[in-house]
Input
Amino acid sequence: MVNEGCLSIPGYIGEIKRSELVRVKAQNARGVEVKIKAEGLLAEVLEHEIDHLNGILYIDHLESQDKFRKLEPPKKPSDSAATKEGEPE
Ligand SMILES: [Zn+2]
Output
């Protein structure tokens, strides 16, 4: 399982299954066939982007809504200062 997000769905992240190893056959910019064997993050990225070409988003791979969540906005420095003021020393 990997945590994955996408600029098509900003501010959210989902936990989905991705292949650990992929083999991709494609054409380069000159139209010459190339074969790519990838693992880890590159395999995940290739699957994600090839899914886009087929009209599939990572949310289509969610096993349940529990695996989909909104990202927390980054905390402002002033928030942590306010918390420290209220804490006992
Ligand atoms: Zn995407």
Remarks:
- Residues 2-77 form a domain with the Peptide Deformylase fold (CATH 3.90.45.10).
